[in-house]
Amino acid sequence: MTFSMYQVAVPPFLQTLGALSAVLAKAEAHAGAKKFDPALLLASRLAPDMFPMSRQVQIACDFAKSTVARLAGVAVASFADDEKSLADLRARIDKTLDYVRSFKPSQIDGSEERDVTITLAGKPVTFKGQPYLVHFVLPNFYFHATVAYAILRHNGVELGKRDFLGSVPGLGV
To answer: What is the CATH number of the domain that holds 116?
Structure first.
């Protein structure tokens, strides 16, 4: 059995972003229960030289939306980075999920050899579609989703691996 580019990209984006939205809801409930401003979590970092939690979520969303667009050969949608609350971040995830769901398999499948050019460190870098997705996008996407989760966990939000995984197709969880 072979996997298509769509299958490798879209279901993982949907699963992980859905789980991240649920994690943010738990973070909001945690802040309410502990009686602190949930906005404090948006600025939290694992290390001083890392992006804050809010930026980690934005970047995870950006990887999902830009990847499907680039693989489909269409212009990448632009979302403002202006979220000021956990609810705002969840709305961004919802908008990203809607955008990702708007792509059909026929738009993405067959993009394995499509040239994808992005800017890294101020310089254009060109990938073929499959290495772009498998070796660049997915590791980055999971990195930023994981760091957002870790920041919240570090700040006392009661989370476990199932929270990170979200709904796993075929496992009934």
So the answer is: 1.20.120.450
